[in-house]
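Sharing a chain and its predicted structure for anyone who wants a worked example. Both blocks are below, sequence first, tokens second.
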Amino acid sequence: MQSLVVREWGEIHLSKSDNKMDEENTIDRIFVNSSAFKSLAKLAESDDKQYRFLKFKKSTVLKVQNFVGVITTPDGTQIEILPKINKNKDSDEETAKKSRIILTKMLKVVNNLELLESTKADVQIKNQPLLEVLITLFLACADEIIKKGIRKDYHRIDEQEKFLKGQLQTHKQLNEPPHKQHLFHIEYDIFSPNRPENRLIHSALLQVLKWSKTNQNQKLAKHCLSLFDGVPHSDNYKNDFAKWSKNRDMNYYKEVLPWLKLVLNQQSPFTLKDKNAGISFLIPMEKLFEKYVAKMLHKKLSPKGYSIKTEPKKYLTMNPDAFQMKPDIAVCKDDKIVRILDTKWKLIDENATYCNGNNDKKKDISQSDVYQLFAYGKKYNIKKVVLIYPKWDKFSKSFSYRLEDELMLKIDPFDVEASLNA
């Protein structure tokens, strides 16, 4: 199986020959064989929204959009797509390591995933593909549950046996025909690990065992599976998630829940439902950044009496209500919105210039985004609206535009790397 790494907005080229000896893969350009390219091209040609992570640049080149994650083609080619955190400053290897750590920790914050907080964990994340990192962390969580004890529950068994056990169901027994009188209708309780939480864990363990390629992960997955051997796998993920116990004695299980949703395709990473492919999940980086910023703002502002609302809704027109407005983040004080913020996962240049060398006063900011923030400011009757972009070498300081006498647009850099250590 071929494993490749590319960043968002990178290119996937059709290899001129399937041996690929004369073609060099980089963090922004990779070459795949004809079988893999054909599969990816079909996705790019599809009208289905779920395949919008790829676009044609030309007939033999596909351009990755702003999605991150892992995609596997039917021939076994696995492509890891990492976030574009910065321009080319480090080596490709260092860039991939740094991006992998940042992405994994952002996922932790957004999905409440419990990651190991240690230097050792960072080393593991740096040196493993993203998929193996997520599997490692899920398995560590499952192993912790095993160490604390797999929860069991009483189950009522109602069956016919040749022996007596528990309670004889007299009314059923009396109705049996003579040729079945030697069988007893009995009812008894057993103390069993067969409960929804354990069925989901069993299913997830089976799944990651198929996905993982490292000896360490396969060994731990097999060990965990052996201890869940008495538990059937889940036949209905949705029902079992709905039955998840919130009792206090199940508190130590709650850390594995987000991992199960991740592995079993029940929450946000955007998953490809191609039965012929291996593991494929993709995360829209725009949405991940928005949720991450909201979580970090909540952490910073809630002690000061502010609250954070994500995607509050309001209509631009009344009678009838139409043209719904839905900003990314609203900062509230005493239930009143005091700031509207929109996040944009885009690297802007505060010193951007036009081709003729003149300064670009827009600084790579989309005009439609400014119009949108202006509408938010007027409709919510606030004095300041904010556009948030990732901080990088060419955008490190805030700046502002005056939209009207009483309305300012602030452009803020958000330091993803620094916030991860906050």
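Comments welcome. The chain has twelve helices and 20 strands.
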